[in-house]
């Protein structure tokens, strides 16, 4: 009787384990298919919309200010992310569902995703820094934010992102989750801290300017400049909020991975990567929504000529 009861309990545990594995497999398959659909459908729009933003800024002299030039540089990284990382992610998941070897495609996606995501974070810091200088130090702005300095800063973003990717993939042990987390955190954490602190400074500075306009008779030109700078600041704030929200699932996944929680690793990994890449589609929509002239030419490209 004891042997039979032990056998029955073993059979029940084996059956529950099989059911759990089957459930995990089905959930993973559904997630893979959803990722294929989402990334496959949004990938062309990501590339086209960001390419249109770049073309519009290049062809329209009225849009060629420093803020829009930096947004166009960010659009370059977003366009490449849609063209390479997003498309390879959809293709890799398709191969995984069909049971085809996808190691080469997955490695290509990892390279592109790591490089372009890091570069986007650094570009975002440049965009926020430009707004910080424009509102906090308006008289020094022409000497700090110059065409030469923008080119140097953007070049540094690409060079540093390439070095970071090389170090993370080839100098850090793949099984060392904590060190890989620190490699990622040393990019994301300073970006988040810098962006949030900059917007805290900009908020108080904007409030100070608003009180000054109400209490003093300022020149009309100064009022118009402040209104224009504030509108650009709001556009940047929306871009920043979109980035932070899209980074949230990836941040949760990395934290759980460091703590050794493997049960939801696959789910959050797919979800995090998809949200990060979808940010590349959201950014050009924000630019177009906030700027009437850009919206006109992005959605009516024939008028760019």
Oligomer description = single chain
The ordered string of helix (H) and strand (E) elements is HHHHHHHHH
In total, the number of strands is 0
- Return residue spans where pLDDT drops below 50 for at least 5 consecutive residues: 1-24
Sheet with the most strands?
A: none
Helix fraction bin: over 70%
User: Termini separation (Å)?
Assistant: 88 Å
User: What portion of residues belong to β-strands?
Assistant: under 5%
Instruction: Identify the overall geometry.
Output: globular
- Whole-number mean pLDDT: 77
| Backbone structural class | mainly alpha
- Helix tally equals 9
Q: Gyration radius, to the nearest Å?
A: 24 Å
Pfam family, one: 7tm_1
Transmembrane segments: 32-57, 69-92, 104-129, 150-171, 183-204, 237-256, 268-287
Membrane topology: Multi-pass membrane protein
Domain G-protein coupled receptors family 1 profile: 49-287
